[in-house]
């Protein structure tokens, strides 16, 4: 996994170069490029890219440095990074600390952050559609489709909209789960599915990995809610205690700390069961990532 | 063209429905859906969709209501709409009037506008990747690739970044042209290219249409600069005189009103010459759109 991480960092760094794309004399304007790099590089757990690569390896048995899964891994991380940049802006969560650094709008101004987020989202789809023939066009189309659906109106952006309108309201457990499945779960699940699609997974394997992705997506958010209460800002690299300060409904506010921890454990068991039922010979990397999601401390 | 317009409006309205996508029980959250619809429907000249459809008909000789060009037309308009929503925000151009209505952030708040813009961008790529088999996957991939490159860091978003950093600075004609080619020209040119790709254009036709798209893209911006000085807000449906107020470099500030008008005429001649050289039997709809770009009054 350490090797995957290094590879992802290298490819992200390369994709975020200022270089002119083939057939164009133009380069990314310097200030925009700085803000985009700042938002993506030198930080982040890269959980989503690691899920893409682990799913690809589990399905195909091949090395995850192939072009399709590596591009899918980077595209998902670009979408994740764009969402953090926009969510941190003053009109949204108004946060000043992220990955232990000042947030993008603090560093580059609000207009700079808005544009950098916009361009990072676009870049994800550029990365998924290389012009060099390295990724089968049918796979390109499926990857774009999965990523767009997971990050848009009935995915991440939709979840964020529900989150915004839920401040100060008590949500039922069903509504809270729905919000988180959209806001965080959809993109984590999409990461698994994109890796599987790159590896041309069978229908059985796809179905099992969909259930796996759903369980860890939800577990991630439950643990996030627990950490927001139990960890400090230095450990998290972002402002702790934010949800309570913002009067946001969370698993902890709904079911308490102990039941939230137990629920995360239940979801982990569901995730492992889905892997067992996948019929795939080696899902150890996916299993390790599931454990990391549940047992993480930041 | 009136028929195309009606068709585009109908399809946009349908695509922006709140309905759950196939395979999902979830719908777009109501507030997000309202803001997205407000940003797109009931307004706009739909120049980009018309360019897509005209290019498709010129290349294929077929009716533009086919799935691929209609989806491409709507996707380009969604990208255009998202860019207007974000550009109007207080941290960018801080504008309150657009298409004769209050801008999205005035109507839905800044967070609502930020999210609606984000989700509209994503929706463009969702629209280009239908799951119903109506568009060849290879065409889907090419359309996503063209649209992403035209709207991202070395396209629209890049041009907007240069624009932001140019306020109060004198630009050379070359720099001004470069900024506008990115900010406005790239997406107009992409509209033409996407229509051509849907129609499986020959290399010769593609090259001619690329030149056509470049000429009208630049002409559009020159005329925009002229109208910002000569038209009133009621006619434009947006705030007139904004560029001078914001001390932005424009063609009019660089070369004066008369030379700007003459330059728009020169670009129109270039556009028509490109059509002549395309080898396509009927480019009358594209020629009519080029004339509309140059002779428009709002």
Write a structural description.
The structure is a homodimer of 298-residue chains. The first copy, chain A, has 13 helices and 2 strands; from the N terminus they run ααααββααααααααα. With 298 residues, the first copy, chain A, is an all-alpha fold. Helix content of chain A is 70%, strand content 1%. The mean pLDDT of chain A is 92. A two-stranded antiparallel sheet of chain A has the order 1-2.
Short structural description:
The first copy, chain A, is an all-alpha fold.
Q: Give the domain tally of chain A.
A: 1
H/E series of chain A: HHHHEEHHHHHHHHH
For the sheet with most strands of chain A, the description reads: 2 strands, antiparallel
Tally the helices of chain A: what do you get?
13
The stretches of 5 or more residues of chain A where confidence is low (pLDDT under 50) are: none
Radius of gyration of chain A: 19 Å
For the record, the CATH architecture of chain A stands as Orthogonal Bundle
State the CATH class of chain A: Mainly Alpha
**DSSP, total strands of chain A:** 2
Average pLDDT of chain A, rounded to a whole number, is: 92
**N→C terminal distance of chain A:** 18 Å
User: What's the multimeric state?
Assistant: homodimer
DSSP helix fraction of chain A? over 70%
What fraction of residues of chain A sit in β-strands?
A: under 5%
Strand order of the largest sheet of chain A: 1-2
Under CATH, the topology of chain A can be stated as: Farnesyl Diphosphate Synthase
Shape of chain A: globular
């Amino acid at each position: 996994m350490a090797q995957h991480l290094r590879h992802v960092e290298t490819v992200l760094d390369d994709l975020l170069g200022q270089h002119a794309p083939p057939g164009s004399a133009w380069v990314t304007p310097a200030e925009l490029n700085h803000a985009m790099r700042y938002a993506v590089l030198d930080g982040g757990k890269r959980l989503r890219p690691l899920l893409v690569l682990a799913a690809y390896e589990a399905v195909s048995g091949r090395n995850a440095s192939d072009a399709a899964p590596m591009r899918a891994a980077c595209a998902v991380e670009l979408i994740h990074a764009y969402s953090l940049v926009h969510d941190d802006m003053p009109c949204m969560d108004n946060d000043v600390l992220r990955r232990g650094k000042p947030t993008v709008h603090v560093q580059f101004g609000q207009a700079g952050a808005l544009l950098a987020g916009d361009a990072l989202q676009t870049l994800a789809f550029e990365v998924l559609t290389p012009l060099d023939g390295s990724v089968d066009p049918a796979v390109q189309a499926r990857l774009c489709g999965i990523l767009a659906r997971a990050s848009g109106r009935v995915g991440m952006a939709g979840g964020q909209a529900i989150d915004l309108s839920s401040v100060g309201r008590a949500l039922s457990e069903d509504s809270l789960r729905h919000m988180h499945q959209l806001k965080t779960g959809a993109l984590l699940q999409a990461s698994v599915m994109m890796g599987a699609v790159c590896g041309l997974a069978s229908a059985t394997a796809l179905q099992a990995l969909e259930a796996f992705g759903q369980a860890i997506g939800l577990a991630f958010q439950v643990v996030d809610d627990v950490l927001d209460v139990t960890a400090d800002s230095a450990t998290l690299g972002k402002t702790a205690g934010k949800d309570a300060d913002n009067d946001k409904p969370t698993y902890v506010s709904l079911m308490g700390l102990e039941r939230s921890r137990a629920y995360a454990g239940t979801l982990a068991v569901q995730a492992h069961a889905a892997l067992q039922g996948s019929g795939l010979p080696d899902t150890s990397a996916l299993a390790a990532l599931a454990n990391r999601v549940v047992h993480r401390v930041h």
